[in-house]
Amino acid sequence: MTATAAPPRPPTSTTRPARRARAPYRWSARGFALPAVLIVALLLYLPFVWTSYLSLTEYNGLGDPELVGLAKYQEMFTDAGFLNSLRNTLFWVLGTLVLPVGLGLFIAVLAYGLKGSFWYRLPFLLPYAISGVAVGVIWTFVLQTGGALDEALALLGVTDPPRWLLDSPLNTFVMIGAATWQGAGVNALLFTIGLQSIPKEPLEAARVDGASGWTLFRTMTWPMLTPLTTVVVGLAIVGSLKQFDIIWAMTKGGPGVSSETLALTMYKDTFVENDYGLGAAVAVFLTVVTVAASVLYLRRQLAGTRES
Amino acid sequence: MSAVAADRVRKTVLVVLGLVWLAPVYLMIVNAAKTNDQYGVMSVWSPAGLGGLWENASAAWTRGDISAGIASTALYAIVAPLVAVVIGAAAGFAIVALRLKHGFVWFVVIFASTVFPMQMLLMPLFLGYVETGLYDTRTGMILVYTVISVPFAAFVMRNFFSGVAHHVFEAAVMDGASTWRIFWRIYLPMAVPALVAVFILQATLIWNDLLLGLTLTQSAETRPVMTALSALQSTYGGSTMPVVLAGGLIVSIPTVALFLFAQRAFTRGLALGQY
């Protein structure tokens, strides 16, 4: 990102005649905003700073944290478990982009304009109301050795099915599948909202000109969906980085650490291994990645609201 | 291909894919309803009536602490979003109607906190909660759930109030109303649809939370329901698969029902939150 100089501002007195009028409410405005600001500062920003500090220390939860500089980061980047977890997290991000987002778009476009399109989309939306843990319970049942999927495959003559939840990286892939089952519908819904907001005239004009099907979608619909796609993609990436519940419910990151992602590694380092410094370093790393990904869509989200 | 034929292809693809999507739900219901004997000998794909459902559900309910979890979580999922929407609406009101100085900056400060992964907060929350005696208490859980709901509430409410003409505020001032009264009597009632949408989304989020429950509670009385379900599942030396599935079914019914009945509010909440 390149830094651009802010355009010179005209004197404020000429642009903001309302400034004087706002003075009478200065104190009540602060009063109304205070609870939100206070609560966020105390329970979100303060912990943020605290974790950043802990990532520079050796600390087991007892006694006092001892400052060790960047040693914990060094330890983290040379740890095989962490690197494996980093790889799995990358799988999650890429997989989420292809599956829940791609499938969501596919469903939205297929159902759009059909009579009763709501009912066609409903089966996909239903799992969104189910928690990550319950999704994990259901899919463990489907994928466990000798489970529902293996039984169905046996009927088709597959007698030696893969060990879905036991082999790495297959276990990560099938869990991305479970997350897709949960999340595709909501993306379809968001894309539908986007499709509904596309003006009809240009589409009609293109249709009159002979464009149809795939060409129409590629040249007209898709470009007009871009702003929304940015938000959906951004949310999906951030969601996949934060994914914890499904993995916890299905494999707890195992066998061993084979299906851990950064979100799980942080939790285990801290609350299972009692290595707070290392857990904090993983948390900081995860946050940096998440914030970088969020900037993608937050900018657009905030830009959109600033105008209104 | 004619338009009618194309529509038929689209419908067929959607129906087939939809059936695939519903299959896991079918499996959960069918097997949560099997007795142990039936589960042992039958294919998981064949239904066996509802013979074991009650037994499995009550086993999950009592043995797995799901009942205690549901009571706690119901409390968390109602109180926390209720408090959060009011706090969020107050912030939105201050920024938009009262034209808080540097309002946009404050808005970004409040909203940007949603970007942090929960992992960044767990450790200090745990240590701080142990230190202050909030660990493993319902008060502590309500507090933390309120906090995580405030930024989204503030975001939506600020956007909502931005659509309200400022003379609504000025007219009320002319009539001699205090800002407090304007907020409670005019702005808040006007925002009910948005408030409901935010409430429903946040209540669902809290109902489905695992991580905070895992980190900040330990006893059956305070532990939220998803954490209880996760424990029920991982210790199923005692609990059979049908019992675990029945547990999964029980905890999913409230959010699925809420979702089906409040579909419109749900969609509105998503639309409000993500543009």
What does this structure look like?
In chain A, α3 packs antiparallel against α14, α4 (71-78) crosses α14 (276-307) and α9 packs across α11. Chain A is globular. Chain A is built from 14 helices and two strands; from the N terminus they run αααββααααααααααα. Chain A is mostly helical and 308 residues long. Chain A has a domain at 84-262: Orthogonal Bundle (MetI-like fold), CATH 1.10.3720. Chain A has a two-stranded antiparallel sheet with strand order 1-2. Chain A is 72% helix and 1% strand. The two termini of chain A are 26 Å apart. The longest helix of chain B has 31 residues, at 66-96. In chain B, 77% of the residues lie in helices and 0% in strands. Chain B is globular and about 75 Å long. In chain B, α5 packs across α7. Chain B contains 14 helices and no strands. Chain B is mainly α. The mean pLDDT of chain B is 90. Chain B folds into two domains: 3-53, no CATH class; 64-234, MetI-like fold (Orthogonal Bundle). At the A-B interface, α3, α5, α6, α7 and α8 of A face α1, α4, α5, α6 and α7 of B.
